[in-house]
């Protein structure tokens, strides 16, 4: 039996998920918890798998990428193929350097690297916290890892006063090396950052730490997700690109219980930096998973010929102050439905057949659909869609919810669009028309 939750309930769950996922590690942990509650079983990639038709499973790699699926019967997998939804768990951010400690003018600061194509200006004057993964040696000499989240504001990146930078509003550029070290507090001497992390782990109840060996930590804005606008038309949050799509795909998978074709959600890390990693879309994670669930190569290839991937990654909504940045006929509006993304040079993987199916499914779900094509005189971004299509040879569609402020520390989407895409993806997971 399939369920369809209301828009209010969907958005409440979405906001809770966004707030619980300041890093890809936390996003995968939050998704795993929701899958467990829905009856899915976790499988370790290092173990032998005994799969049963009709049951739900998930597996993680690097703690930052996840594949979840319902296992079809062998005949159904061969005759119906797989319905795959892809998204990514990472977002542009500021990551802490390996030796980050700075002590200047009595202030304790941390040096950072820029991860992905960050819109830097909005990071200034925000209440920042710190989260990620720490690897440590315990008191027995064993190497362990633990997620950490300071949760409270522990840092800030103060702007320089306008009086000292009279050109700030007309010609200011940001030097990432010199402008971005984050202020953590005041101190008489430079603290040991790894010792600070050890103390934080102890505060979380991890008391067997001998030495903090390394970490992957990023700063994030502590302001939580919210609905805004006179009539609550908008959803504002950090990391909408692309945790919004992760949650939409997750909820569609959980709420679509009927199994005919195989139903799959894959959320990869490292999309914002090119996807080339062991757990990125340009790596072998998805193809290795497929080889395990369908070991026979001939049957696997025949099944893929009957399969389809929807790559869900947010689209650029037309900004009322910058409408000239869009093609006049292809400016998606917030709250006017999900967007089919098209590019003649295959920066998006959509074609007429995959987009036609999406339009058909959206019409059945009574959800409006829009199209996005970048201006012909501008460069086009890309997604995991073309990468996965090339890796697997599976027909693919690129779609997304329209948003403002992509790659900002706080982004904006329509409060109706995510729920609309959720309804269409439910239909996609059940369709026999691929």
Automatic annotation (TrEMBL):
Segments passing through the bilayer: none
EC number, as in UniProt: 3.4.11.-
Instruction: Tell me the Pfam families matching this sequence.
Output: Peptidase_M18 (PF02127)
The UniProt entry's GO biological process terms, in alphabetical order, are:
proteolysis
> Iron: is it a keyword of this entry?
no
Enzyme class, one word?
A: hydrolase
* GO-annotated molecular function: aminopeptidase activity; metallopeptidase activity; zinc ion binding
Q: Name one GO cellular component term.
A: cytoplasm
Q: Which UniProt keywords apply?
A: Aminopeptidase, Hydrolase, Metal-binding, Metalloprotease, Protease, Zinc
Needed cofactors: Zn(2+)
SUPFAM superfamilies to which the protein is assigned, alphabetical: Aminopeptidase/glucanase lid domain (SSF101821), Zn-dependent exopeptidases (SSF53187)
Keyword field contains Phosphoprotein? no
Q: Which family does it belong to?
A: Belongs to the peptidase M18 family.
Task: Tell me which NCBIfam families the record gives.
Answer: PRK02813.1 (NF002759)
Query: Which protein, by its recorded name, is this?
Result: M18 family aminopeptidase
Organism, scientific name: Marinobacterium stanieri
């Amino acid at each position: 039996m399939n369920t369809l939750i209301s828009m209010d309930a969907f958005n409440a769950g979405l906001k809770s998920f966004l707030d619980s996922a300041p890093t890809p590690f936390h996003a995968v942990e939050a998704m795993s918890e929701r899958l467990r509650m829905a009856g899915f079983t976790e499988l370790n990639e290092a173990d032998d798998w005994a799969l049963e038709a009709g049951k739900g499973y998930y597996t993680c790699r690097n703690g930052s990428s996840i594949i979840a699926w319902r296992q079809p019967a062998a005949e159904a997998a061969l005759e119906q193929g797989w319905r795959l939804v892809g998204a990514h768990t990472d977002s542009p951010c500021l990551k802490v350097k390996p030796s980050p400690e700075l002590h200047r003018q009595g202030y304790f600061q941390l040096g950072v690297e820029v991860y992905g194509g960050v819109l830097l200006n909005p990071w200034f004057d925000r209440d920042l916290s710190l989260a990620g993964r720490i690897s440590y040696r315990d008191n027995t000499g064993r190497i362990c890892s633990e997620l950490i989240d300071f949760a409270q504001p522990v840092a800030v990146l103060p702007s320089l006063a306008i009086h000292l930078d009279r050109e700030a509003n007309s010609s200011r550029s940001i030097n990432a090396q010199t402008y971005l070290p984050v202020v953590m507090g005041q101190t008489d001497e430079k603290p040991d950052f790894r010792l600070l992390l050890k103390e934080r782990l102890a505060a979380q109840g991890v008391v067997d730490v001998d030495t903090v060996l390394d970490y992957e930590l990023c700063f994030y804005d502590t302001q939580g997700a919210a609905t805004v606008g006179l009539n609550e038309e908008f959803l504002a949050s950090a990391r909408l690109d692309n945790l919004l799509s992760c949650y939409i795909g997750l909820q569609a998978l959980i709420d679509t219980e009927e199994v005919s074709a195989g139903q799959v959600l894959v959320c990869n890390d490292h999309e914002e930096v090119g996807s080339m990693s062991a757990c990125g879309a340009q790596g072998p994670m998805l193809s290795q998973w497929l080889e395990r669930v369908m070991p026979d190569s001939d049957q696997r290839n025949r099944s893929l010929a009957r399969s389809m991937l929807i790559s869900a990654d947010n689209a650029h909504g037309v900004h009322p102050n910058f409408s000239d940045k869009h093609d006049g006929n292809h400016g998606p509006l917030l709250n006017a439905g999900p967007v089919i993304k098209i590019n003649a040079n295959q920066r998006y993987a959509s074609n007429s057949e995959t987009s036609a199916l999406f339009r058909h499914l959206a019409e059945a779900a009574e959800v409006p659909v829009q199209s996005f094509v970048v201006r012909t005189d501008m460069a086009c971004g890309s997604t995991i869609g073309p990468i996965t299509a090339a890796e697997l040879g599976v027909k693919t569609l690129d779609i997304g919810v329209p948003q403002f402020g992509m790659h900002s520390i706080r982004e904006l989407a329509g409060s109706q669009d995510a729920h609309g895409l959720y309804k269409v993806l439910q239909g996609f997971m059940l369709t026999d028309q691929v």
